[in-house]
Structure to design on (83 residues):
């Protein structure tokens, strides 16, 4: 499953630093893991069970900056199944 523009707009914003953020998007449960700057760097997307464990897909985000702080790369990549 590829990430659509509406979902990317929702998850590419700033969140609480170094936290897990629980969201709901359409019929999917989302868990975002953020870095120390508040950027989402991991995404677990699928159905959550009673314990909050997501069964679905796992995505990782790559963010790279140059020495001056300009953004060079920013993309999401599917890493496999999440369980």
């Amino acid at each position: 499953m590829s990430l659509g523009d509406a979902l990317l707009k929702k998850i590419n914003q700033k969140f609480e630093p170094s936290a897990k953020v629980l969201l709901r998007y359409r019929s999917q449960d989302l868990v975002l893991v953020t870095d120390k700057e508040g950027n989402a760097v991991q995404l677990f997307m699928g159905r959550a069970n009673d314990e909050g464990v997501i069964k679905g897909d796992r995505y990782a985000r790559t963010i790279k900056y140059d020495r001056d702080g300009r953004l060079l790369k920013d993309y999401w990549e599917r890493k496999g199944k999440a369980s």
User: Anything to note?
Assistant: The longest strand covers residues 54-65. Residues 65 and 72 are 5 Å apart (CA to CA). DSSP finds one helix and five strands in the chain.
